[in-house]
Structures are given as structure tokens and as C-alpha cells.
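[agent] plan:
  1. take the single chain provided in the ticket
  2. run structure prediction with default settings
  3. attach C-alpha cells to the ticket
  4. add a short note for the reviewer (M.T.)
[agent] executing step 1
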Amino acid sequence: MELHTHIRSALRGAWLRSENRNEALKNARLRRGIYRCYECKKECKKKEIDIDHIIRVGATPGSTHADETTDWNGFIERLFIPSDGLAVLCKQCHSNKRDRFSKAHALARARISKGVYGCELCKREIKRKEINLVVRTDGALATCNYCEHGIIPGDENEQG
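[agent] step 2 finished; step 3 output follows
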């Protein structure tokens, strides 16, 4: 395991015990062991909720998602934010939020210029209406219709 992964895990562990996280939990608590989801307002048991950073914490330096603006100080500041920057969400709402973010990020990555995008698999230039946003366990991809259906452009087996 790389060093940045150990540091990130240690910081996340400290955040799990942070006063701000506990305050967010306390604010969402209806009664012992029952919390209200910030999004759907459903009553949930503690094992059915996640504490979400309203503004995404983002990548750590050295990770595959890092860019030139990624730094440890920014990551730490975004991780240890006040409780009003946190939301208690049920697992379903949290999953929906992650999928929305993942799709938006894939679309931004694929954008070449106004109205022109690139398929992240075959690199073909496509229009916005031709993009498929595919959510996978490792994130979302912006693909063209060919790649979405497993058809490789120019392949002799391509259905026409």
C-alpha cells in the first residue's frame, strides 16, 4: 500500500471520531438509535446512514484522481469541516448523490469543447446527445453508443 493511502486512512479514522461529525449525528438524531435523512426525511437506524460532506472532500496527493491542484492541506480542511457542512443521509440517498457526482465528473472529463465530447473508451468525438453515462463500481464513464453496447467502431463483427 502506498504512503498516501496510509495517511488518508489515518485522517479518515480521526475524522470518524471528530467532534464535528458527532455534532452532525446529534443534530440528526430523533431518538436513541434513530436518525432522519437530510434528503428524503426517512427515519433510519444508525447502520442505515452515512455522514456526507456536502462539499466533496476530493482526492489526496498521489492518488489516481489527483491533479496539480491537489494538496494535503486542502484535503484536511475539507475533511474536518464544521458540522453544518455535513449531512446525515440514508444509504440510498448517499448512493444517489455519489452516482450524480460521478456522472457529472465523467461528463466534465469527456468535454473537449462546447458541445463536443470524447468517448472515454474509443476516444471518438461525439455530441452531447450521443453520450451514455455508465455508472460502474469504480466510477462513471462517458461512452459513445458503440462502446456502450460493446461494439468497437470499424470491427468486422459490427452490426450494421
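[agent] step 4 note for reviewer: Residues 7 and 95 are 25 Å apart (CA to CA).
[agent] ticket updated
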